[in-house]
Amino acid sequence: KEPTLGNPQNTIEVLQKYNFVFQKKFGQNFLIDTHVLDKIIGSAEITKDDVVLEIGPGIGTMTQYLACAAKKVIAVEIDKALIPILEDTLSEYENVRVINHDVLKVDIAKLAEEENGGKPIKVVANLPYYITTPIIMGLFENHVPIKSITVMVQKEVADRMQVGPGTKDYGALSLAVQYYAKPYIVANVPPNCFMPRPKVGSAVIRLERYENPPVTVKDEKLMFRLIRASFNQRRKTLANGLKNSPELDYTKEEIEAAIEALGRGASIRGEALTLEEFAKLADLLSECRF
Ligand code: SAM
Q: What does DSSP say about strands 96-100 and 72-77: parallel, antiparallel, or unpaired?
């Protein structure tokens, strides 16, 4: 079944038929460009073996494209006003399951177990931008079996996910994403590809999950506490950031000794450290207590 949605005309038709009112609080910007849709599906490399999780199907535009390419699509949508619309636009697709829920409250690992016997799924979405970070981090930290995540996000957030130390966009999100996955920006997408038009530029980013993280660290949770602590207080030195963090309880001496052992000077800032260095710092600090 060929997709019927994906241009301004048929999107407006569906919206009018149901008197749909856009909800700003849900980050609703629907895709109205078939080239962008083809690009997303192509770069996600969906095959008939794949179970795909779509977050926020909207009126089902990308869902139709995904349903054509995948074995099964599970679409989680929070807005109950969209459910009757999805029943209509997806009525010809038998391999789609729509779940009316807040994706942040869904146990996705359990869903992957039910739908794909715990084998890795692919996540594809035009994300609601207000919750990009909690969605991505939730998928990684809860150890959901995932092969790749291909998502539309705010351009600036896509940049943050793929940069390294020494740039203004480098932060906790860059490090977290790069610990779990290899990021690759697929395309930049201008506001006129959406209805209504977002105020910001967008980009499609593909995150390919590593089977093994690129660095080894004894205490992953400690490493992420160190990362958060150093970027919460960007203008402070690394030593001060770690000393002031409510999440950490190392002494001034322990922290200074660990930074010294890293081979970095006392005035170094967290934003200069690579992922390897954060891993080493976490190992040094976890050893100093035993
Ligand atoms: N996929 C559609 C498209 O590309 O046209 C819609 C994308 S729109 C940017 C984001 C969608 O996510 C909206 O349909 C919105 O209602 C939904 N959404 C927002 N917050 C959500 C949440 N917490 N859980 C699930 N869906 C959510």
A: parallel
Q: What is the spatial distance between Cα 271 and Cα 166, in angstroms, rounded to a whole number?
A: 7
Summarised one tens digit per residue, pLDDT across range 165-222 is: 988 899 999 999 999 999 999 999 999 999 999 999 999 999 999 999 999 999 999 9
Q: Encoding tokens for residue 40?
A: 């997303």
The alpha-carbon radius of gyration of the chain (Å, integer) is: 21
What is the number of H-type helices and E-type strands within the chain? 12, 9
Question: Could you please report the per-residue DSSP string of 106-136?
Answer: S-HHHHHHHHHTTPPEEEEEE--GGGHHHHH
Cα of 154 vs centre of ligand 1, distance in Å, is 14
Q: Are 187 and 204 in contact (CB under 8 A)?
A: yes
Angle, alpha carbons 156-160-162 (nearest 5°):
120
3-state secondary structure of 168: coil
Q: Which residues pair with 184 in a beta bridge?
A: 206
Among 189-193, 263-267, 271-275, top mean pLDDT goes to 189-193
Evaluate: CB of 6 within 6 angstroms of ligand 1.
Answer: no
Asked whether the bond before 84 is cis by omega within 30 degrees of 0, the reply is no
Tokens of 224: 């992420």
- Cβ–Cβ under 8 Å, residues 186 and 39: yes
CA dist., res. 219 & res. 226, Å (int): 11
Measured distance CA(59)–CA(126) in Å, rounded: 12
Known binder of ligand: residue 102?
Answer: yes
What ipTM goes with this model?
0.99
Rounded-to-integer distance, Cα 98 and Cα 82, Å? 10
Q: Which of 223, 131, 127 is nearest to 175 (CA)?
A: 223
- Please indicate whether residue 213, judged by its CB atom, sits closer than 6 Å to ligand 1: no
Whether this model's pTM surpasses 0.80: yes
| 267-274: average pLDDT | 90
